[in-house]
Amino acid sequence: MTEYYNVLTSYGNYAFKIGSLFFVVLIIWTFIMLIVLSIFDGGKYLKYFKFTFLVYPVFILIPCYLYIDGKKNWERIFNNKEYEIVEGYVENFIPEKGWGDKRDESFSINGKNFSYSRSYFTGYYNNSNSIIEEGLYLKIYHRGNGIISIWIYE
Q1: Rg of the chain in Å (alpha carbons)
Q2: pLDDT score recorded for residue 134
Q3: What angle do the packed helices 7-40 and 56-79 form, to 10 degrees?
Q4: Burial degree of 68 (CB within 10 A; 0-12, 13-18, 19+)
Q5: Cα 83 vs. chain centroid, distance in angstroms?
Q6: Residue 145 has pLDDT above 70, yes or no
């Protein structure tokens, strides 16, 4: 039995994506404002706008806080066993075709249905086009429809 996915080991990637998005938006907004202010007001208010750079640490610290808080939450969930386990063969597997496909990837194991899509971020497993396929024997730790750990029997 091999662990294929665990939310605790992949959670950093999720937080990094959110943090990177915040930072990129902030950088783009800053440069647009610098250009607009320097062109349209002759630089009068540009000196005040430079204080915007003092806001950067806040936008860096917010994703860090969310990462630490989320990691603690997942550790609590695992330590208190606040999840269910289903084990069996993958049935009714419907793959997601690709980006922009409106249909989520889905499958069931022993009557428990799971669906996810790489088109949106969740704290749970959402890696469509993975190794999951019809007839594969899996052990899945989940909360509701959210997959938090996948073990593959080989």
Answers
A1: 21
A2: 92
A3: 160
A4: exposed
A5: 19
A6: yes
Q: Are 106 and 133 in contact (CB under 8 A)?
A: no
| 114 within 8 A of 145, measured Cβ to Cβ | yes
State the DSSP H helix or E strand holding residue 115, giving kind and residue range, or none if neither. Answer: strand 112-116
What would the two tokens of residue 26 be?
A: 């902030």
CA dist 94 and 115 (Å) reads 9
pLDDT digits (tens, 9 = 90+) for 64-115: 777 777 778 888 888 898 899 999 999 999 887 766 666 788 899 999 999 8
In this structure, which amino acid lies at residue 64?
A: C
Place of tokens 């992949």: 10
Total residues belonging to the chain: 154
| Residues 71, 38 contacting (CB under 8 angstroms) | no
Q: Are the C-beta atoms of 136 and 104 separated by less than 8 Å? A: no
Q: Which residue has the tokens 């890696």?
A: 127
